[in-house]
Write a structure and sequence with these properties.
The protein is of the alpha+beta class. The protein is built from 2 helices and 9 strands; from the N terminus they run αβββββαββββ.
């Protein structure tokens, strides 16, 4: 009986020892797994840090190598390209037949294709397109940086520089090609072009300089019925007559004029006139 109890105690002790060994092995395996994952995370972090530093160094190198880039300027603030947006074409503000000028809507854009108000100068060239497709230079305008900065507008349809340009020469065709050359102050040259259709001015003044007499407006209407001659002034109004000056006295001669003096002779009474007394 005692031997049986001893056997059961021995078996229990062996089982407990086996459980303890298995638990220890599980805990050790879990610790090894955690340690391996930690080493992998540290490696990924070190790799990410190294890549970020390399990218920052590359970006700084590109910024310093690009000509005209200001110190501390953001890459997003640089001009990637330009666009001639909606609204570019003829402009009619005098409510008369035909467009009296050209409007150019210039939109500088960044790397995200968003409009940016970049400072610079603008050159616009208009070319006439004939029905045969031939292009002939019409006019050229130069816009300073100050004038361009004052023309910036923000709207729902278009946001950019709205530049109004009067005709230098009256176009003779409806189709024009607009070529815009934008030169940012930071450096670089960007160009965009667009074909537009305008409303022509009266045929009598097409192809003539805008500053000539033909650009003063449409021909005057025909004269009405003639008025009687007596009611139509034939010349400028008469001038008022000058004041009449009094006549000047005649100039006195230098020769002495003798005045008449009575004869100092006595005539006696009772004697004939002219008979002298003794």
């Amino acid at each position: 009986m005692a031997s049986t109890r001893f056997a059961w105690v021995a078996i229990f002790l062996l089982a407990a020892a086996g459980c303890r060994n298995s638990r220890s092995e599980l805990v050790e395996a879990e610790l090894r797994t955690r340690d391996r994952e930690l080493r992998e995370l540290r490696g990924d972090l070190l790799q990410s840090t190294t890549m970020n530093e390399a990218l920052e160094n590359t970006l700084k190198t590109q910024q310093y190598q690009q000509p005209g880039l200001r110190t501390g300027a953001s890459v997003l603030s640089q001009v990637k390209d330009i666009q001639l947006a909606r609204g570019t074409g003829g402009i009619d503000e005098d409510k008369m037949p035909g467009d009296e000028g050209l409007q150019v809507v210039l939109v500088p854009r960044d790397v995200d294709a968003s409009p940016i108000k970049a400072a610079g100068t603008l050159k616009v060239t208009a070319l006439e397109i004939s029905p045969e497709g031939l292009k002939t230079p019409l006019s050229t305008w130069d816009v300073s940086a100050l004038q361009l900065r004052r023309s910036w507008r923000s709207g729902l349809i278009s946001t950019g520089y709205f530049v109004t340009l009067p005709w230098q020469k009256i176009p003779g065709t409806e189709k024009l090609r607009i070529v815009a050359t934008f030169m940012p102050l930071e450096g670089g040259v960007f160009e965009a072009e667009k074909d537009v259709t305008i409303k022509l001015l009266p045929e009598a003044i097409r192809g003539q300089p805008a500053s000539g007499p033909a650009f003063l407006g449409p021909p005057l209407p025909a004269a009405g019925p003639t008025l009687p001659i007596n009611t139509v002034p034939t010349g400028p109004p008469p001038r008022p007559a000058p004041p009449v000056e009094p006549p000047k006295p005649p100039a006195t001669s230098t020769t002495e004029v003798k005045r008449w003096q009575p004869v100092s002779r006595q005539i006696e009474l009772g004697r004939p006139d002219g008979v002298e007394s003794p």
